[in-house]
Amino acid sequence: MKIMTVFGTRPEAIKMAPLVKKLNEDPDIESVLCVTAQHRQMLDQVLELFELTPDYDLNIMKPNQTISMITANVLTGMEPVLQKEQPDMVLVHGDTSTTFVTALAAFYQQIPVGHVEAGLRTYDKYSPFPEEINRVLTGHIAELHFAPTERNRRNLLAENISDDHIVITGNTVIDALLQVADKPYEFEDETLRSLDFEHKRVITVTCHRRENLGENMEHIFTAIRDIAAEFDDVEIVYPVHMNPKVRDTAGRILGHSHNVHLIEPLQYQPFVNLMARSYFIITDSGGMQEEAPSLGKPVLVVRRETERPEAIEAGTVKLAGVERDTIYAMAKELLTDKAAYDTMAHAANPYGDGKACDRIVAALKEQLSAAKSIAAR
Ligand code: UD1
Ligand code: UDP
Hints:
Elements: E1 2-7, H1 10-25, E2 30-35, H2 41-49, E3 56-57, H3 67-85, E4 89-93, H4 97-108, E5 113-116, H5 131-141, E6 144-147, H6 150-157, E7 166-168, H7 172-181, H8 190-194, E8 201-206, H9 215-230, E9 234-239, H10 244-254, E10 260-263, H11 268-277, E11 280-283, H12 287-295, E12 299-301, H13 309-313, E13 317-319, H14 324-336, H15 338-344, H16 356-376
Parallel strand pairs: 1-2, 1-4, 2-3, 4-5, 5-6, 6-7, 8-9, 8-11, 9-10, 11-12, 12-13
Bound molecules: uridine-diphosphate-N-acetylglucosamine and uridine-5'-diphosphate (UDP).
């Protein structure tokens, strides 16, 4: 049974790494790993941490790449790899352009696709952009859907995807988180080493979404700058995404505040430790909305919507929108109202128990051996 896993960006790599390790260890499975390298440095950080060596590396990343560039390069790059390997199934993850285009490339070769982290929806075509449509289209190509939650399963059923093809697994990000969160860790980064986590309140920030580039990002960063100016006991740590558009705006608005630290993207292990030692988090990341409830850290999500309402229901995540005044007011509330803070700061686990990868491997083996025995008849 040959399974090819394909991913290209940091979050896909973090969420697929524990699964690839399980596939590699399984004696019944021949596991092939292909990376598109839609991200280069941020992907390599994850490959290094989880000690994964890809069998294929399309190396497509270009500075300031457009979605069309990613699409064309992944589609043409995947074709010969799929033709050569002819896997029984291709596994993709989530909602990036690597995900959707790899699914499309596999479909063109009539190779079945398994979609990990299936069924999340905002029902807004342009937000997140282009991820909502990437995820919907991948779902309609896929044969097997690994849905993190019951809500995700229901979203798929509502699109006439057969229940027989859906498995509820939990989110593999919890598998990854548990593999690194419990290990003792001391920061190597000089800025992080110099921070006084005991007497200061550290706010971790990340922001990168395409629909936030430009005006929204200016609002978000200005609100954060205002919070930093007002609260002496606050230190803001922002490992800045490598997108040059993000870096320009972050440097311009946040680069001159003494208690705002703009640093390079962190390896997953230091980053998880940073989140765990923070007072709260401000982000537009998808994955961090799933990690933070497990860590018991309040999150203000700087987006208008989320495809992860479970984290809001769990109480640790709030939508703060993209307006300067609202973000500032919500961050200030967390810093000044202990009761409001305590309501959010509790551990919850809507995204699973860290065994998502076991469930995925078991379901893969069951489905593929059933398909093979039908074919043999
Ligand atoms: C991509 C995904 C998004 C995902 C995000 C995770 C698409 C369309 N977007 O968005 O869904 O949430 O990754 O971070 O699939 N860059 C580097 N080095 C890196 C990574 C990026 O230099 O390691 C720079 C490059 O100039 C690149 C730019 O960042 O052109 C943007 O990368 P891209 O993958 O196009 O978009 P993201 O915003 O990262
Ligand atoms: N992350 C990391 N280092 C950082 C910032 C984030 O390892 O400097 C991790 C984070 O814990 C989460 C993932 O990267 O698991 C989120 O990736 P990103 O924000 O790029 O994408 P998104 O989650 O929005 O798709």
